[in-house]
């Protein structure tokens, strides 16, 4: 009996998912000369080729544009193609397959500043440090354990 319990606990521990940083991706975006530019990469530095890029509004999550990264992992978007009448907070989503998703936020201030820089070239465009990447939350441990137990059952 003790041996069986030990084996079940061992199987549960071995089946628990660990972090796989080699599979996490990052997306980075900024506005330069009136164009949204960015790139996607794996945590090891390898570029995400042909990754799906979606531009959505932060409020309401309305899809404005879908495109993809090129062979170098880069992308560029003209804000005029988004159909916005005024700058709004945007979320740039990089989806490179199941479980490989990352987001970057561009604020309305980033877009407005770039529009001003385009009109007045004496100001140099710059990316802001307010942005961050977010990682999807992993499921709670109790959900993982209960799923494994139901599979074993």
What can you see in these coordinates?
The chain is α+β, with helices and mostly antiparallel strands. Helix content is 25%, strand content 30%. It contains 3 helices and 8 strands; from the N terminus they run αβββββββαβα. Strands 4-3-6-7-8 form a 5-stranded antiparallel sheet. Strands 1-2-5 form a 3-stranded antiparallel sheet. Strand 1 and strand 2 form a beta hairpin. The longest helix is centred in the first third of the chain and has 14 residues. The protein is elongated and about 75 Å long.
Sheet/helix structural class: alpha+beta
Average pLDDT, rounded to a whole number, is: 78
Q: What is the rounded distance between the termini?
A: 17 Å
Shape field? elongated
**Helical coverage, percent range:** 10-25%
Summary of the model, kept short:
The chain is α+β, with helices and mostly antiparallel strands. Helix content is 25%, strand content 30%.
Write the layout of secondary structure elements.
Blueprint (H helix, E strand, L loop, with lengths): L1 H14 L9 E8 L2 E8 L9 E6 L5 E6 L5 E4 L12 E6 L5 E6 L1 H12 L13 E2 L6 H12 L1
Antiparallel strand pairs: 1-2, 2-5, 3-4, 3-6, 6-7, 7-8
Provide keyphrases for this structure.
3-stranded antiparallel sheet, 153 residues, elongated, 5-stranded antiparallel sheet, 25% helix, alpha+beta
């Amino acid at each position: 009996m003790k041996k069986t319990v030990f084996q079940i606990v061992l199987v549960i521990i071995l089946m628990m998912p660990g972090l796989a940083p080699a599979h996490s991706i990052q997306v980075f975006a900024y506005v330069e000369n009136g164009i949204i530019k960015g790139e996607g990469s794996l945590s090891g530095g390898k570029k995400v080729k042909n990754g799906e890029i979606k531009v959505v509004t932060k409020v309401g999550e309305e899809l404005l544009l879908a495109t993809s990264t090129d062979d170098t992992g880069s992308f560029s978007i003209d804000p005029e193609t988004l159909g916005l009448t005024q700058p709004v907070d945007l979320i740039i989503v990089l989806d490179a397959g199941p479980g490989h998703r990352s987001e970057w936020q561009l604020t309305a201030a980033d877009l407005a500043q770039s529009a001003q820089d385009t009109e007045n070239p004496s100001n140099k465009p710059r990316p802001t440090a307010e942005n961050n990447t977010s990682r999807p939350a992993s499921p709670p441990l109790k959900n993982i354990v209960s799923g494994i137990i139901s599979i074993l059952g």
